[in-house]
Write a structure and sequence with these properties.
By secondary structure, the protein is mainly β. The chain folds into 2 domains: 67 residues, Elongation Factor Tu (Ef-tu), domain 3 (Beta Barrel); 66 residues, SH3 type barrels. The chain is built from 2 helices and 12 strands. Strands 10-9-8-7-12-11 form a 6-stranded mixed beta sheet, with no helix packed on it. The protein has a 3-stranded antiparallel beta sheet with strand order 1-5-4. Strands 3-2-6 form a 3-stranded antiparallel beta sheet, with no helix packed on it. The chain is elongated, with a radius of gyration of 20 Å.
Length: 163
């Protein structure tokens, strides 16, 4: 009503989003936040230059980004920015190329890594856990993945196509 927007922040502390301003859109526009307050599962933000409902609706479904160079260095071990993982080559434990990382998701039960198969480009998901991704080497541009075997088929519905 007053030009405020709903904002979903994917920073560890949702309110930390204000430390990374200005935010950017995929088409290069900048967005400055005038104020931010928490609401149930999202933030309510007032954007500089947006003072009414019509202007706020123009921002509906616009994704806002923080340029990677504005993010602080990570000091914790085994912690990465998702943007640093996208595009890494994925190898199995024998060193064979499996594919590359296309996304990291969290559907509520933990992180899941999405890989595009080197063989056919089809994507598949693996839990992003030490058991299935025992090595992440950002500098070398690769991860090591432990692929499930057909004999590990717990559903009992037959073999699955794996890369």
């Amino acid at each position: 009503m007053r030009g405020e927007i709903k904002l979903w922040s994917f920073t560890q502390d949702p309110l930390a989003i204000i430390q990374y301003e200005p935010l950017e859109t995929s088409d290069g526009r900048t967005v400055e936040l005038e104020s931010v307050r928490p609401q149930k599962d999202f933030l309510v933000a007032r954007v500089v230059g947006v003072s009414d409902r019509t202007a706020a609706e123009a921002l509906r479904n616009v994704e806002l980004y923080v340029p990677r160079d504005r993010l602080p260095a990570i000091e914790e071990e085994a912690t990465w920015y998702i943007s640093d993982l996208i595009g890494l080559a994925a190898h199995d434990t024998s060193g064979a190329t499996v594919g590359k990382v296309t996304a990291v998701h969290n559907f509520g039960a933990g992180d899941v890594i999405e890989l595009a198969s080197a063989a056919d480009g089809q994507t598949f998901l693996l839990p992003f856990a030490a058991e299935t991704v025992p090595e992440v080497d950002i500098v070398a541009g690769r991860i090591v993945v432990v692929l499930p075997r057909e004999s590990d088929d717990v559903a009992g519905d037959g073999p699955h196509d794996l890369p």
